[in-house]
Design brief:
It contains 7 helices and 9 strands. By secondary structure, the protein is α/β, with parallel strands linked by helices. The chain has a domain of about 120 residues: Rossmann fold. It has a 5-stranded parallel β-sheet, with helices on both faces. Strands 4-3-6-5 form a 4-stranded mixed β-sheet. The N and C termini lie far apart (about 35 Å). The C terminus is likely disordered. The structure holds adenosine-5'-diphosphate and 1-O-pyrophosphono-5-O-phosphono-alpha-D-ribofuranose (PRP). InterPro entries: GK/Ca_channel_bsu, P-loop_NTPase, PhnN. Pathway: Metabolic intermediate biosynthesis; 5-phospho-alpha-D-ribose 1-diphosphate biosynthesis; 5-phospho-alpha-D-ribose 1-diphosphate from D-ribose 5-phosphate (route II): step 3/3. One of its GO terms (biological process) is organic phosphonate metabolic process. Its EC number is 2.7.4.23.
């Protein structure tokens, strides 16, 4: 059976990248899709392929992306190389826009949507602490926090207000019910 594409979604600052990194470190069954983004390669945060807008559009036209979208004045994509990993039966996580979920459900044979949530004050404090965006950009990201999931999207909602490990454990239990999560790290 093919692997599942695990879409991790939620407002800016909710912890999508932190949760995905922790999940990948914790459980070898979970791969991580490296996104293509028109953001300077040294911006920090997640590992991604930084490209110019012209290069992005050329790749998009050439069909090398499984999914692509625009948000925050940037272009984002999940490369179609994930197909080979999924075909080999491996689950792969990707950080997606909530607006692209209907397309993602159509694109991938098996998909799970994990919608992370956290309260507004927590999001704001985390974005300031992350320091990747300007104050104006942070304000715009927070304004988008209330964006609701498109109708027809079936998501599993997981809170990330508290300890990251609790959120990670809840996701693993949902993804691999009845199975012991593989733990290659140390418990805290
Ligand atoms: N459970 C958590 N507790 C404390 N800080 C967190 C938690 N989850 C994420 N963070 C921090 O919040 C900031 C935003 O997290 P990030 O993973 O970049 O979110 P997103 O990708 O959803 O924007 C980062 O600085 C990260 O270290
Ligand atoms: O339509 P939305 O669900 O609001 O998502 C819009 C974009 O925001 C996030 O990007 P990015 O990872 O650059 O930002 P973030 O880390 O601040 O969430 C997410 O991955 C999408 O690409």
């Amino acid at each position: 059976m093919s692997g599942r594409f695990i879409a991790i979604v939620g407002p800016s600052g909710v912890g999508k990248d932190s949760v995905m990194q922790a999940l990948a470190a914790r459980d070898p069954r979970l791969g991580l899709a490296r996104r293509v983004i028109t953001r300077p390669g040294d911006a920090g945060g997640e590992e991604f392929d930084g490209v110019t807008e012209a290069a992005f559009e050329a790749q998009e036209t050439a069909g090398v992306f499984a999914l692509s979208w625009r948000a925050h004045g940037l272009c984002y994509a999940i490369p179609a190389t994930v197909d080979a990993v999924l075909a080999a039966g491996r689950d792969v996580m990707g950080n997606l826009s909530r607006s692209v979920l209907i397309a993602a459900q159509a694109r991938f044979a098996r998909i799970e949507v994990i919608a992370l949530s956290a309260d507004h004050a927590t999001l704001a404090a985390r974005l300031v602490r992350r320091g990747r965006e300007t104050d104006a950009e942070i304000t715009r990201r927070l304004e988008r926090a209330t964006f609701t999931l498109p109708q027809g999207v079936k998501a599993h909602v997981v809170e990330n207000n508290g300890v990251l490990d609790d959120c990670v454990a809840a996701i693993l239990t949902h993804l691999y019910p009845g199975a012991m999560a593989c733990n290659t790290g140390t418990d805290k």
